[in-house]
Known about the structure:
Elements: E1 4-10, E2 17-23, E3 32-42, H1 44-50, E4 64-65, E5 69-77, E6 89-92, E7 95-96, H2 102-105, E8 118-120, E9 124-125, E10 132-136, E11 140-143, H3 154-174, E12 189-193, H4 197-208, E13 212-217, H5 224-231, E14 235-238, E15 254-259, H6 264-269, E16 274-282, H7 296-305, E17 309-312, H8 318-340, E18 343-348, H9 352-357, E19 365-369
Parallel strand pairs: 8-9, 12-13, 12-15, 13-14, 15-16, 16-17, 18-19
Antiparallel strand pairs: 1-2, 1-4, 3-5, 3-10, 3-19, 5-6, 6-11, 7-8
Helix pairs in contact: 3-4, 3-8
The chain binds zinc ion (2 copies).
Amino acid sequence: MESWMKAIVLVPGTTTLQVADRVEPSVVESDDVKLQVLQVGICGTDREEAAGGRAAPPPGKSDLVIGHEMLGRVVETGASVASVRRGDLAVFTVRRGCDHCPACAINRSDMCYTGDYADRGIRHRDGYQTEFVVDSEAYLVPVPSSIASIGVLTEPMSIAEKAIDEAVQIQVGRLPDAGDAGGWLRDKNVLVAGLGPIGLLAAVALRLRGANVHGLDVVDAGTIRPSILEQLGGTYVDGRQVNPHALAEHFPEIELIFEATGVAQLEFDLLAALGANGVYVLTGIAGGDRPVTIDGSSLMKALVLRNQVTVGSVNASHKHFALAVADLEAGKRAWGSALDQFITHRLPYTEFAEALSHHPPDEIKTILEWSAL
Ligand SMILES: [Zn+2]
Ligand SMILES: [Zn+2]
């Protein structure tokens, strides 16, 4: 007999969003894992979906269960599952590969060539804002109970991990003095632009690797985001006090820029702060149609004459999720209370409309709670 569960369901392309009954999924394959969902984080992607923006239902369906930043508890496993047992905490990754490109063939759907992938909770596959989910062990990442309180940050942390990993791999591959990837960030001057959850989580990963982190945002010093950055040992610069054309004067020679603002004009202006041989990694998705003014030829000239690299980064592989868990654990050991401050707003799932429509100024991460930790 079928059991029913609650889920937050969206008709993509509309603002029709409600709690609906769905059939509770079961373990069918030997590598299936069933998780009881505990918490699901909300981000800009969810808010864009809920506002009628970018989202797509599973094939043949008209609605989509939203949510992609989850933390769950194992309630049942198939016979061949070895990495977790009942009661363990774990998360599922987000992307499912296209099955017909070389990246997806080696479980790197984050680098899919065709665009025919699915993203759980976003595009062509139901997500995690529900009571139970089942998926293959291949997409499962165990979370130790020591970071139960921040395990829901694993997915956004994985985004930061991939972007940093890409930047480091590029530099180690081309700089004659780079040394090994593991040590490259030590004492490097890194600019993190945008101190939302992704920027602040990047600061955690960067500080753990010994980088000097300079954080840029447009909020008052002493408020929560600059305060967390400073607890991590970073330095804050208020972007409102800085002429964008004179950014470079406010920082030492920057060797890596981690961009997480999604503001196109600023994304270009930031290039002025990048030093010789520097790498610039963009994770923010620039929204809106505001025209951007750039001096194209001097920009291209600077890239060439200063050996600079610009790279975009999206999504994350299983490896980056595992790194995210390891860094959340190390970060919690190093700066426990600072990491606990990342989750600023918690609401029961029934208050999804409030969580998706309001973006409080002191918010870093809002989560919906489905079950007690
Ligand atoms: Zn997200
Ligand atoms: Zn693919």
